[in-house]
Amino acid sequence: MTAGRFLWDALRREPGQLVRIAFWSVLESAPAFAIGHAIARAINDGFAASRPWTGMAWLGVLGAAWLVAAFGARQVMLAVAGVVEPFRDRLLSRIVHATLRRTESPFEQPQTSSVARSTLQVELARDSFAAVISVVRSFAFTVASVTLGMLTLVPEVLWLVLPPFCAGVALFLLSLPALARRQRHFLLTDERNVEVFATVAGGLRDITACGAEDRVAATAGDRVAEQAAAGRALARVTAMRTLSLSLGGWLPVLALLAGTPWLLRQGADAGVIVGALAYVTQSLTPAFGGLVEGLGVSGVRLLVSLNRILEQARTPALRSRTVPAAGADVMLSDVTFGYGPHADPVIAGLDLRVAEGEHLAVLGPSGIGKSTLAALITGIAVPDAGRVLVGGVPAERLEPAARVLIPQEAYVFRGSLWDNLTYLAPGSSARAVDKAVEAVGMTALADRLGGHRAGIEPGTLSAGERQLIALARAYLSPARLTILDEATCHLDPAAEALAEAAFTGRGATLIVVAHRISSARRAERVLLMDGTRVWDGTHAELIRAAPGYAELVGHWRAATDLDHERESVR
Fold first, then answer.
1. pLDDT digits (tens, 9 = 90+) for 102-152
2. Which SS3 state, helix, strand or coil, does residue 29 take?
3. Taking the mean position of all CA atoms in its chain, how far away is CA 60?
4. What is the distance between the alpha carbons of residues 423 and 427, in angstroms, rounded to a whole number?
5. What angle do the packed helices 30-41 and 52-102 form, to 10 degrees?
6. pLDDT score at 566
7. Contact 256, 160 (CB under 8 A)
8. Whether the Cβ atoms of residue 305 and residue 188 lie closer than 8 Å to each other
9. Which residues pair with 527 in a beta bridge?
10. Cα separation of 381 and 343, whole Å?
11. Partners of 404 in the beta sheet?
């Protein structure tokens, strides 16, 4: 969709607001029609005829027209907002959807340029659109009012005023395409400059270490020179605005003054001449100046920004991501993943199969890659090599409702407990919520908070209480695959066992990144990541076969005994 079509569609969608704009614009343009007549009558029928009160009365009529115009202007701005805000929302929606389509994974961070467009360029387009509507509307109604006023005051003056005025307007409109092209070029050079200097600022140490200061400075200098040249070209085209304004705004004044003898011979008097001058200098010229400034700056900026946004929003989707899974089994085939192209892989050549409904515990020292494995299974991270399938579907393309991940720091938002619990399962019945609350062992917490409809403040909850709420939320969700990434580390062992039993009882696939040996004992299988190799088997099998596992079990037993000793002291 082109910028022009998008703008026309934005106007067409709000016919009621356009009618309001037109109605209130008539009132706002009342002074443009009344000024010439009021001044002419004040002079001829009042001050020149020695009737000052009559003259003051006509000026009072003009003042009343300004009061009406002020009220009309306020209503116009409200109506303009009724057109501009939906335009902004639609534009922002297109940017967000385009950004998500370009994102490889639903959890991948958007690019910086997309975020910048969604903040700066949308607001710029919104403000520019509002300014364009305002100046074009004001110009159109002012010209119509002035033309009608001159026709009823002294029709002959139109022969002096309209030709240079129309010539100035035509010249300005003809210069707009070139102005838009120069403005677009300047904007592109500015964006490239921002990217270059952001890269330079982030790599100053590397630049200095490699002795590349001169080369980088030369490259940056070329970018600055390019933008300076674009700025000079833009300034040259911008000078056409001044010429247009002189031709269409001030030449009519000279023509009117030069044609005064002719107007006097046509029957005009001093009051009529002054009234005609007021029409030109107080209404027509300011309106044209506003049009030149508004379209020349805001209009060009709107077209350039909107075309830029829509151009990037037309980027095709990389691929579809919302694919339903055929099951909840997990398969990793020769998976390798590292945080960066030059970093050592955190996971290398991993093969793993978890059957649907199976309970797997993942163990290993801190930093070994357990959370990375959870991220790969849920699709948050995409492997550098190999495949991760969930129910036969690549994990990064899996529909969100197919799996649920609870990290160590559970997320709870401000609102009601009900909203927090049903966030992943909207429309849940009270019975289903009660079952989830009871299953994970948070009944006492729900009662203490005041029931399911009670409001909660996340900051007032302990880490363990937030984990209980997240566990109940995950239990209530329709996901057939649940990954607990140390999601029970703030619970006591009994509460942890109850929560794991609840998920096991659902018949869904459960993968637990464990921090206690008891989680490994409860699991059907254990995956041990010890840095040298990956061990896969039952708890008993790993005790016999994996030296690192026995050492880990001993460490956890010692830590558990210490915890018991501390608890007994308390």
1. 554 444 444 544 555 556 778 888 888 888 899 999 999 999 999 999 999
2. coil
3. 50
4. 9
5. 160
6. 43
7. yes
8. no
9. 362, 536
10. 15
11. 482
Type and span of the H or E element at 400: none
Distance of CA 56 to the CA centre of its chain: 55
Quote the tokens at residue 263.
Answer: 């107007």
For 63, the token pair is 């003042």
How would you class 561 by CB atoms within 10 Å of its CB: exposed for 0-12, middle for 13-18, buried for 19 or more?
Answer: exposed
pLDDT under 50 in the chain at which residues?
Answer: 104-110, 112-113, 316-321, 561-570
Whole-number average pLDDT of the chain: 83
Q: How many CA atoms lie within 13 A of 510 on its CB side?
A: 26
Please enumerate in sequence order all residues whose Cβ is within 8 A of that of 121, keeping only pairs 6 or more positions apart, or say none. Answer: 305, 308, 309
Is the Cβ–Cβ distance between 172 and 239 less than 8 Å?
Answer: no
Task: Give the up-direction half-sphere exposure of residue 294: CA atoms within 13 A in the CB hemisphere.
Answer: 18
Q: How far is CA 487 from CA 445, 466, 516, 555, 556, in A?
A: 17, 10, 12, 21, 18
Asked whether the beta carbons of 526 and 358 are under 8 A apart, the reply is: no
Q: How confident is the model over 37-78, as pLDDT tens digits? A: 899 889 988 888 889 899 899 999 989 999 999 999 999 999
Q: 98 near 312, Cβ under 8 Å?
A: yes
- Please state the pTM of the whole predicted model: 0.54
Helices (H), 332-462: 370-378, 417-421, 430-439, 443-449
Q: Could you give the maximum distance between any two Cα atoms of the chain, in Å?
A: 120
Using DSSP, state whether 353 is helix, strand or coil: strand
Question: Are residues 524 and 545 in contact, defined by beta-carbon separation less than 8 angstroms?
Answer: no
Distance CA 312, CA 98 (A): 8
Q: How many other β-carbons are positioned within 10 Å of the β-carbon of residue 259? A: 19
Residue 59 Cα to chain centre, angstroms: 50
Kind and range of the H or E element at 347? strand 347-354
